[in-house]
Amino acid sequence: MEDKTIIHADGLTKKYGSQIAVNNLQLQIQEGEVFGFLGPNGAGKTTTLLMFLGLTEPTSGKVSVMGFDPVREPFKVKEKVGYLPENVGFYDDMDARQNLRYIARLNRIADEVAEKRIDYWLDMVGLSGEASKKVGTFSKGMRQRLGIAEVLIKEPKLIFLDEPTIGLDPDGTNRMLDLIHSLSREKNMTLFLSSHLLDQVQRICDRVGIMIGGYLVAMGPIEELAKKKLGVNQQDYTLEEIYMKYFKEA
Fold first, then answer.
1. What band does 79 get if pLDDT is binned at 50, 70 and 90?
2. Residue 64: strand pairing partners
3. Which of 48, 95, 202, 247 could form a disulfide with 239 if both were Cys (CB 3.0 to 4.6 A apart)?
4. Is the confidence at residue 160, as pLDDT, over 70?
């Protein structure tokens, strides 16, 4: 049977001096799933993402992303994955289309291919009518939508999303969540989502992992975690209830 594992972390540990940011992380993410990565500030989530992206080196343990070692092959990882940080950076004196065109050229995408993708993704994120406006005039929510379009220009198989709905109004939030779901189901992309908005995570994620104090204290489908931690079989629970139960017991 073909291995569909996109991320495989085995004993992944990161120390800063005597402080352990991530402790013996064991984690596998499968192709096409939407995985929610949860935890309070300082839990080790950002450090984990940095190790997956090859932006910081683990103290011990191993990680494979898309079949590559982020430590030894960071550029191969960056070619294959997309990353949307919480605060997206753009050239404010360029318009939306120019920013996307610039990113496409950095990724060595042929101009004729890039133009079709730019049109498509601007439409998908609801910015077709704003394509000629300087990004410096964009609201936080518009910048966030442009950020997801920027990530999708190279059509990665794996996308890391850090608080992707921050700054979006309710309509924009719904569009973003629907887009994330469709990328998984229709394009078989794998999405690794870090967010504090647990109702949104519950809506779109196939599985979740909960990090507390550097440890992955829980992982699995939400309904299984609910049965294990709350003792309920029906969907009369919220992810927040599950999360708080783990948090209080940690």
1. confident
2. 8
3. 202
4. yes
User: Phi and psi for 85 in degrees, rounded to 5?
Assistant: -75, 170
User: Can you point out the beta strands (E) in 66-152?
Assistant: 81-84
- Position 137, amino acid: T
Classify each residue of 178-207 as buried b or exposed e, where b means 16 or more C-beta atoms within 10 Å of its C-beta: ebbeebbeeeebbbbbbbebbebbbbbbeb
DSSP 33: -
Given a cut of 50, whether residue 1 has pLDDT beyond it is no
Other CB atoms within 10 A of residue 236 CB: 9
Reported as a single tens digit per residue, the pLDDT across 102-151 is 999 998 999 999 999 999 999 988 899 999 999 999 988 888 889 999 99
Q: Are the beta carbons of 154 and 82 closer than 8 angstroms?
A: yes
Distance set, CA 183 to CA 41, 94, 191, 236 (Å): 28, 28, 8, 28
**Are 207 and 242 spatial neighbours (Cβ–Cβ below 8 Å)?**
no
Contact 96, 131 (CB under 8 A): yes
Q: Which residue has the tokens 């982020």?
A: 70
| CA 26 from centre of chain | 18
Reported pTM? 0.90
Per-residue confidence (pLDDT) for residue 8, from 0 to 100: 97
Three-class HEC string of 54-88: CCCCCCEEEEEECCECCCCCHHHHHHHEEEECCCC
Q: What angle do helix axes 140-152 and 96-106 make, rounded to 10 degrees?
A: 30
One-letter amino acid for residue 10 of the chain: D
The stretch 150-171 carries a mean pLDDT of 89
